[in-house]
Amino acid sequence: MPQGKTPAFWTMCTTRKDMQIRDCYDVVIVGAGLAGLSLARQLLLNSNKNILLVEKRAKIPPARQKVGESLVQLGGYYFSKVLDLEEHLIREHLMKYNLRFYWKTAGLENRCFEDYAHAYIRSFSNIASYQLDRNKFEAELLRLNANHRNFAYCAPISELNISLSDDARHLIEFEKSDSSGIAVKADWVVDTSGRRKVLARKMKLEQKNAIRHGASFLWVDGLVDIDRLTDLSPQEIRLKKERTEIGHLPIWLATNHFMGEGFWFWVIPLQGKTSLGLAYDKTIFPRERVSTPQKLIEWVCEEFPLFARDLPHRKILDYGGFKDYSYGCAQTIHKSKWALSGEAGRFTDPLYSPGSDLIAVHNTLITDAILTADANELANKCPIYEILMQSLYESLIPTSSISYNALGDQESFALKYTWELSVYFSFFVFPFINDLITDRRFVLAYLSKFSRLGSINKNIQSFISAYYQWKKSHRQPLCEPVFHEFTKVAPLSRAEHSFYHVGVAAAEALSILDAQLVNLRELARYIMAHVTANVLADKCVLRNRPFVESLDLQNFRFEVGKMRDHYAKCAHSSEVYEWTFDPSVLDKFHTEAQPDNLDTVSRAPNGDEFNE
Questions:
Q1: Is residue 176's pLDDT more than 70?
Q2: Cα 266 from Cα 275, distance rounded (Å)
Q3: Are 428 and 379 in contact (CB under 8 A)?
Q4: What's the number of CA atoms in the CB half-sphere (13 Å) around residue 393?
């Protein structure tokens, strides 16, 4: 269990005698987790709305440690800038050093950190992100909200019943801890009850998606500093040659990922403790291997032997897991003045820490809807906001449902992540930090542009997944660690610079997105051309202009015979395709062909054949 005394205000917030429950509220929020507490603060900062937050649990945050600590740019911006919590985040949490990824090296014992291949972004982001101690952060949100005159809080409650109305106030009934019954009316009801999904279950809105993943996680006492999991002396650690590539910043500040086929193991630092966990594709990885804290420790020490010198000696503070954590929702906002946010609605996969990002987007759209007084205007907004919410969620599904296997290969993952991060920077972060997602004129044009990426994204995910499968039997594994800085592929750097544009109006923002679409299309062509050049063992492919320009970004499949035939039609040309960056930047990943598998036939999970 987490160490230390329970803060006094936890008890205060649940037992205040002067906090009278009124008959009517502007907003009732169900669930005092990250989504509900942050929505309440956003409303309190931007309106005079009276808010009642009700919670099933007696203590918020709970005594158990909460998972989901890693923020990326959009969520980091929301909590620090929009919710004005920057000082708290810097004082009480850790500023995050990006996401970093590691792979074992064939032929080495992998007992030491220097045995592992690295992929990373070396510099800090222009937008700060953080490693959240969720319990501490949610306690601070509750404290700030509870001190506001327009906020009321009631916990624990039971026997909750919500009666929604299409044209009148909603009725919310529940029992307090003393068994007294309470009935209140509210203009708006927002469900942030997490995986209890109060409204989604009541209204039969729950949906499955294509992701069937699970997770096991625990927290240990103290800092697990992966840079020190080595036989090297402190001086040798400081002076090792790899510093030229990876720099001198504390690697432990990152969300560190140890990668394998269909799984990844995270190491996240918190103040005084470390979060450790495994997320895995259930179709590839057997859950029973990690079904207890002891089994998880044993597995990671076996799979990534460097941890054997540390984790068996650590005190385990808490443990948890999910058998199947991903799901969808048919609708999350309605003109009848109800909405869902956070895990009460949809959840994809934690690989790139999108949970807080989606909370930020949903809460911002919900806040704007709540502050819309005109019923006709609200009726026009809600369908657009629902489409936007669904579009962002659905765009994240293919990365986990199609190409999760590619996590097992550094090159395949580098292609995958560079693409996904470029889309994220330009089409997620940039519009959000410019307060454009509630500008309906912008959103309609944005959705049109964003939709053009949908079929390209799905095709790239399938292409990379198939390439990974092909590589396993056709290419030798790397026999020494490779260090790869993601922004060496310049389209990613250009995408990151999109959110250096701040305070732009809708027209200018749309022009910037047009430029980013061009940037992303070039990146998609590069991924397909780079892979084809490697598969055909011909570097000329990458600079053959007719071939590169003829690539169908929506339909170019990983079928070796057809790839060879396609290129043969263009090979006679001497015209050179002029990339806007160095296309040889990924040559370091090329290895020799497997000697015994030159004439094999492989089959991808989707049934596509790649014939040699």
A1: yes
A2: 8
A3: no
A4: 31
Q: Whole-angstrom Cα distance, residue 381 to residue 362?
A: 13
Q: Could you tell me which of 175, 167, 171 has the C-alpha nearest to residue 184?
A: 171
Give me the numbers of helices (H) and strands (E) for the chain, helices first please. Answer: 19, 22
pLDDT at 350: 97
Q: How far apart are CA 42 and CA 27, in angstroms?
A: 12
Query: Are the beta carbons of 430 and 501 closer than 8 angstroms?
Result: yes
Give the other-Cβ count within 10 Å of 244's Cβ: 8
CA–CA distance, 452 with 431 (Å, rounded to integer): 17
Q: Closest Cα partner for 250 from 95, 465, 112, 361? A: 95
Query: Of 414, 432, 407, nearest to 350 (Cα)?
Result: 407
Structure tokens, 372: 């819309």
Cα diameter, the chain: 84
Exposure class string for 547-582: b at 16+ Cβ within 10 A, else e = bbeebebeebbbbbeebbebbeebeeeeeebebebe
Residue pair 342/194 in contact (Cβ under 8 Å)? The answer is yes
* Neighbour count for residue 587 (Cβ, 10 Å): 13
Q: Indicate the SS3 state at residue 172.
A: strand
Sign for the CA dihedral angle at 117, 123, 125, 129 comes to positive
pLDDT of residue 608: 40
Cα–chain-centroid distance for residue 368? 24
Cα separations in angstroms, 603 against 120, 284, 310, 469, 610: 31, 16, 40, 8, 7
Helix axes 375-401, 355-370, angle to 10 degrees: 170
**The predicted structure's pLDDT at residue 326:** 98
pLDDT score of 17 more than 50: no
Residue whose token pair is 């620090």: 80
191 close to 344: Cβ distance less than 8 angstroms: yes
Q: What is the DSSP string of 284-317?
A: TS-GGGGSSHHHHHHHHHHHSGGGGGTGGGSPEE
Q: Which helix (H) or strand (E) holds 483?
A: strand 483-485
Residue 514 CB coordination number (10 Å): 12
Q: Is the pLDDT of residue 18 over 80?
A: no
Q: H/E element holding 378?
A: helix 375-401
Q: Is the predicted pLDDT of residue 324 greater than 70, yes or no?
A: yes
Q: Are 279 and 257 in contact (CB under 8 A)?
A: no
For 136, the token pair is 């501490």
Question: Do the Cβ atoms of 68 and 350 come closer than 8 Å?
Answer: yes
